[in-house]
């Protein structure tokens, strides 16, 4: 800032002209906002003096600007001048006149608000805290005390973690103000104590809580004092969160006592009691669970509290009550404050529902009955909270249904209550209040989401009058109601069936169309979406004729769609909704009014030219192209294809994908009308997309090529010439798999069938691509699958000739490179999956020799090939394979390859559809006996393969195999027990399977091996538990609680598994239990995802404390587990956080040795990032800054040095994933 400008400001700020002074202060404010503002010490003092003088200005405009300058000025001054400025403000606050005190108070609050943080915050805290404490203690001047309390509240709320030495003094000064005669001071003291309590150390918090509880326990405490102290108790509980749990045994009975003992007119005391109980329940769920039987009945009782209405409202289910509905006009007593009690009770009920999900079977029947009965509440504010509590209850039932027996029981109760709930909702929908009706529609939406089967014809008949009334409401502010109604309708339409809706469409469609024409864009867009959903209801089975009663409504619908589609001044949301509605309408009703349909199609084509609506229009045209009714697209086919083809060059990936899908649909249905030149241009664009840069787009492009071969055979030669080279390049990619590989196989078969290229040419191209030195094993396997597909399409003779050629190349392997041998083996195997190769006697010898190769890669390919050819002829090859396994029993390395071959065969057989190839009973017994014998080899690699074989064998013959495995799970051999228990992992598949019922009965026996004497068996049991929880949690849901203690025991370091290995110059410490502990924590992670309702989180956290101190490989899953727990059980994590901080700190401060190799450095970096991710998840817990050790960890470690940029990067990643602002939160 230039001296000249500053001098001018200082000169004008003391001018006698008020306008000059105003402009000077305004200019100063502008200059202070500039980052480059700098000046000397003398000028700073002059500025402070000048700004403080303006606080005495009689003009409110000038003094207001001066106050704004104070905060900016404090951030620019040197420390001494900041202290002087704050000293002057505090002096004005304590000794100044009334006007000066008010402005000084506002000025101090402005400074506190504008100061960003340390080190300036430390200066502010030290400068003003003593003055504020003195001001709070000024009993003789209530205004100063009130202002000081306000400023202290702001100061502590923002900088409480930086004033540990002052908090006790602040609390001691504020506590006496709770007994002030002025209610305004008492309220400010409550807020201030709530802010202070969050940062109090344990001993001071104990004294504060003891004082509050002792005062409440005092006999004959005045009403005002009881109200104040109960209000303060709730505020402190909300502030300190889980730390208040240790006081609940005293606090809950006192709150209940005062609530039940309140006299007439003491409604606010009851309200504060209920609010305090709500805070206890939400902030300390574990401790509050012991008081559930006291808190919940009280909440339900207070929910019915209405002294001005003496009838029993809960017994109101009959139709006779409809005529006697209570309305707001029946009660005109403005003195009635009982609604506050009912509102607080509704919030308490919601708090219990949310915080105690494990008590759902007990909560649901009582809460549901009480809440539904109170739908008839006469106060709108209370109704909103009742509806919100009901939504929480239904959502909790839905989130736990299917995950636990408790959830299933509550779901069954909800299903049986649906009828009475809907009747109560229908009565409320006849209310005049839009707010009430909006709340009911929110509750109904949640009910339909959880219980979609409630959308029956009877339900729609019951709700339809109210729905029509809401859609046609003309009152001001009805837009929100219409939105809620339309959103409910759309959801109900998706969940219900067309027959339930069809009888009502004649009444429903006119108001929907009227809503679509509304000017408010949100209502219009939602109505158009509703029309889109309604079209399939009008004609559920096209091209069957439309119901004559509904046909008359189609012109009106088409007219609205045309009107909205033609309008250019619409909001983007309305445009997209209109385009989607047009696509659906044309697809289902395009033959009802062909002239309008043609116009709508032309409009959709026009929308392709607009960048904003392009993507939506492409998707709509795909709907038209796949329409179940005939829609003539001949006139627009050429321009549409031209546009869509040009979109394939765009960088917009969703647009490319949508364009490919739409072109495919158009060519499938209308490809005959496309011109040859246009198809050639399309081929050029599609071929350019066949690469591994985007496998999804590549798969879609290859599928389109197949469609072109079918619909335009004339383009086969062009495709052969232009698409085959990139297809061969794609085939050599290590990324090729899944849908892209399947489409590539289909394309090659399509080329073969089109006669554009011969089988020999295709085979030569594939062999050349597969035998190139740069082609990896994954690419060779894909090549082998493509050759097998070609052989299957070419017929028996070609297949035999190809196999003969491949066997010849294997016979002369000394002249072949390794890549050629691998490809030949893999191809023989893939061909043998579907073709019987028993006609080639040399095949067994060739595969046997390959298994003895010096190359490990060739051995692996031979093993895969041997297993695959077994599928083509089990009779010929399975006995040969089993005998070979038996012969190699003494050579585990060779037996391993043969077991891999057997596993390949069993995996393929278990994946066969019903009626496919399977093993006979004799073969099953032979294989099972062989595998049981092989399970005792003691080699870990062989054991793992044997376990996988046993698992897939059990899938093939559950009734025959599983009982034998159960018997052998108790074998004397630990190796056999481990293999059989590990096999369970492969029996649990993610889809329904006949083994599920038998496996459920057997799981208890397998899980009992968690306490086996051998650690190998225990690790196998842990992995089996993890697989079952991940794939089919219902198999083990009722066994989880019994298995958890044994699982937790596996997370503890077992010193008997730690041994020292003498390596000569040095000794190495080996921990055999490391993998077991790692597996146990991974299993806990899976259980948290799938069986959370079965877990006691407090006990679940115990092993985590030790895991965070363990080895690197154990810490990583523990960090992930902590991050998840912070999201799903924040209150429990807060309760254990102080114990978790030391191991987290140790991990962050650990450094690799000076001579550490790069691998160790990289591992340490990975562990740091993992730990920081867990800390970032914990930092998002509400009120986590009230935990002093965590605050210290953040300020002194995480946000310092090299960790700060790492943490910032993790925050940015999280924000990007969640679509949030990474700088929104302090941490």
TrEMBL record:
Signal peptide: none annotated. The keyword GTP-binding does not apply. Residues 1035-1187 form the TATA-binding protein interacting (TIP20) domain. GO terms for biological process: SCF complex assembly. InterPro entries: ARM-like, ARM-type_fold, CAND1/CAND2, TATA-bd_TIP120. Residues 311-335 are annotated as: Disordered. SUPFAM superfamilies: ARM repeat. Gene3D superfamilies: Leucine-rich Repeat Variant. Keywords: Repeat, Ubl conjugation pathway. PANTHER family: TIP120. Belongs to the CAND family. This is TATA-binding protein interacting (TIP20) domain-containing protein. The lineage of its organism: Eukaryota, Viridiplantae, Chlorophyta, core chlorophytes, Trebouxiophyceae.
């Amino acid at each position: 800032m230039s001296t000249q400008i500053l001098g001018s400001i200082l000169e004008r700020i003391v001018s006698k002209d008020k306008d000059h002074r105003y402009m000077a202060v305004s200019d100063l404010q502008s200059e202070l906002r500039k980052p480059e503002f700098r000046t000397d010490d003398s000028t700073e003092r002059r500025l402070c003096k000048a700004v403080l003088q303006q606080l005495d200005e009689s003009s409110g405009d000038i003094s207001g600007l001066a106050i704004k300058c104070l905060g900016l000025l404090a951030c620019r001054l040197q420390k001494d001048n900041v202290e002087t400025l704050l000293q002057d403000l505090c002096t004005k606050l304590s000794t100044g006149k009334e006007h000066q005190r008010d402005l000084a108070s506002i000025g101090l609050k402005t400074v506190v608000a504008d100061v960003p943080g340390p080190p300036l915050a430390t200066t502010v805290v030290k400068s003003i805290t003593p003055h504020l404490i003195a001001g709070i203690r000024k009993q003789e001047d209530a205004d100063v005390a009130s202002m000081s309390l306000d400023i202290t509240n702001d100061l502590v709320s923002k900088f409480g973690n930086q004033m540990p030495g002052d908090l006790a003094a602040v609390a001691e000064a504020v506590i006496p103000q709770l007994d002030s005669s002025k209610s305004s001071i008492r309220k400010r003291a409550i807020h201030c104590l709530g802010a202070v309590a969050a940062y109090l150390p344990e001993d001071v918090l104990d004294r504060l809580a003891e004082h509050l509880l002792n005062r409440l326990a005092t006999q004959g405490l005045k009403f005002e004092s009881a109200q104040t102290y109960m209000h303060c108790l709730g505020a402190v509980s909300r502030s300190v969160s889980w730390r208040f749990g240790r006081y609940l045994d005293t606090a809950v009975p006192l709150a209940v006592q005062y609530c039940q003992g309140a006299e007439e007119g003491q409604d606010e005391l009851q309200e504060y009691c209920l609010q305090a109980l709500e805070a206890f329940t939400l902030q300390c769920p574990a401790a509050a669970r012991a008081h559930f039987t006291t808190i919940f009945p009280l909440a339900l009782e207070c929910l019915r509290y209405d002294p001005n209405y003496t009838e029993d409202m809960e017994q109101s289910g009959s139709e006779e009550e409809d005529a006697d509905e209570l309305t707001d006009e029946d009660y005109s007593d403005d003195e009635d404050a009982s609604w506050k009690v009912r509102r607080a009770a509704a919030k308490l009920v919601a708090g219990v529902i949310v915080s105690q999900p494990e008590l759902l079977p007990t909560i649901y029947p009582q809460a549901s009955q009480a809440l539904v009965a109170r739908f008839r509440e006469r106060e709108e504010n209370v109704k909103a909270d009742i509806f919100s509590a009901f939504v929480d209850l239904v959502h909790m039932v839905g989130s736990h249904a299917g995950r636990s027996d408790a959830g299933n029981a509550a779901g069954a109760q909800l299903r049986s209550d649906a009828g009475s709930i809907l009747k109560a909702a229908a009565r409320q929908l006849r209310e005049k209040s839009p707010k009430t009706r909006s709340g009911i529609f929110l509750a109904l939406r949640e009910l339909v989401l959880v219980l979609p089967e409630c959308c029956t014809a009877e339900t729609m008949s019951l709700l339809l009058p109210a729905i029509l009334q809401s859609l046609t409401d003309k009152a001001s502010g009805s837009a929100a109601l219409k939105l809620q109604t339309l959103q409910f309708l759309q959801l109900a339409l998706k969940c219900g069936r067309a027959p339930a809706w069809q009888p009502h469409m004649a009444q429903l469609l006119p108001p929907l169309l009227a809503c679509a024409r509304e000017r408010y864009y949100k209502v219009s867009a939602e109505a158009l979406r509703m029309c889109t959903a309604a079209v399939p209801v009008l004609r559920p089975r096209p091209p069957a004729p439309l119901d004559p009663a509904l046909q008359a409504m189609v012109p009106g619908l088409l007219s609205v769609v045309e009107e909205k589609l033609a309008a250019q001044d619409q909001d983007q949301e309305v445009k997209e909704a209109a385009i989607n509605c047009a696509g659906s309408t044309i697809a289902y009703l395009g033959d009802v009014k062909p002239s309008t349909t043609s116009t709508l199609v032309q409009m959709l084509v026009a929308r392709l030219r607009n960048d904003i609506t392009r993507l939506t229009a492409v998707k709509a045209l795909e709907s038209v192209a796949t329409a179940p009714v005939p829609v003539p697209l001949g006139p627009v086919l050429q321009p549409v294809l031209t546009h869509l083809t040009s979109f394939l060059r765009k960088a917009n990936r969703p647009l490319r994908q949508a364009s490919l899908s739409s072109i495919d649909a158009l060519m499938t249905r209308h490809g005959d009308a496309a011109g040859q030149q246009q198809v050639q241009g399309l081929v050029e664009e599609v071929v350019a997309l066949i690469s591994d840069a985007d496998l999804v787009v590549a798969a879609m492009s290859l599928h389109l090529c197949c469609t072109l071969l079918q619909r335009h055979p004339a383009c086969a030669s062009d495709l052969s010439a232009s698409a085959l080279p990139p297809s061969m390049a794609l085939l050599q990619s290590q990324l090729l798999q899944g849908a892209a590989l399947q489409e590539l196989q289909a394309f090659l078969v399509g080329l073969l069938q089109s006669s554009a290229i011969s089988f020999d040419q295709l085979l030569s191209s594939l062999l050349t691509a597969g035998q190139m030195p740069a082609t990896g094993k994954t690419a060779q396997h894909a090549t082998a699958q493509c050759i097998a597909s070609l052989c299957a399409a070419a017929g028996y003779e070609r297949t035999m000739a190809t196999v003969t050629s491949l066997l010849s190349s294997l016979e002369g392997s000394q002249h072949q490179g390794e890549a050629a041998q691998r490809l030949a083996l893999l191809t023989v195997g893939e061909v043998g999956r579907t073709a019987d190769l028993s006609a080639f006697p040399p095949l067994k010898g060739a595969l046997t020799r390959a298994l003895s190769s010096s190359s490990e890669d060739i051995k692996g390919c031979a093993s895969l090939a041997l297993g695959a050819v077994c599928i083509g002829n089990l009779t010929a090859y399975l006995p040969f394979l089993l005998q070979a396994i038996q012969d190699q029993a003494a050579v585990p390395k060779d037996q391993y390859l043969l077991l891999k071959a057997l596993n390949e065969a069993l995996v393929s057989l278990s994946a066969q559809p019903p009626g496919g190839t399977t093993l006979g009973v004799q073969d099953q017994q032979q294989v099972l006996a062989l595998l049981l014998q092989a399970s005792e080899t003691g080699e870990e690699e062989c054991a793992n393969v044997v376990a996988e074989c046993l698992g897939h064998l059990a899938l093939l013959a559950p009734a025959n195999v599983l009982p034998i495995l159960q018997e052998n799970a108790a074998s004397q051999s630990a190796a056999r027990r481990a293999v059989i228990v590990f096999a369970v992992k492969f029996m649990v598949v993610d889809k329904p399977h006949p083994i599920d019922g038998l496996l459920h009965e057997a799981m208890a026996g397998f899980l009992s091996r968690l306490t086996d004497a051998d650690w190998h068996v225990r690790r196998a049991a842990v992995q089996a538990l993890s697989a079952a929880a991940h794939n089919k949690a219902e198999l083990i849901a009722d066994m989880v609680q019994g298995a958890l203690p044994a699982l937790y025991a596996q997370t503890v370091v077992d010193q008997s598994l730690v041994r020292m290995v003498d390596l000569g110059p040095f000794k190495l410490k080996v921990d055999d239990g490391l993998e077991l502990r790692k597996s146990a924590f991974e299993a806990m992670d899976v259980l948290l995802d799938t069986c959370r309702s079965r877990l006691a989180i407090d006990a679940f956290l115990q092993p985590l404390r030790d895991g965070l101190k363990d080895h690197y490989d154990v810490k990583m899953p523990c960090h992930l587990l902590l991050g998840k727990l912070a999201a799903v059980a924040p209150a429990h994590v807060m309760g254990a956080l102080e114990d978790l901080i030391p191991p987290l700190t140790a991990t962050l401060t650990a450094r690799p040795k000076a001579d550490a190799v790069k691998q160790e450095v990289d591992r340490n970096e990975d562990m740091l990032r993992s730990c920081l991710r867990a800390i970032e998840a914990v930092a998002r817990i509400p009120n986590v800054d009230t935990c002093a050790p965590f605050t210290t960890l953040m300020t002194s470690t995480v946000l310092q040095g090299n960790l700060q940029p790492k943490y910032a990067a993790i925050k940015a990643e999280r924000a990007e994933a969640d679509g949030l602002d990474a700088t929104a939160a302090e941490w």
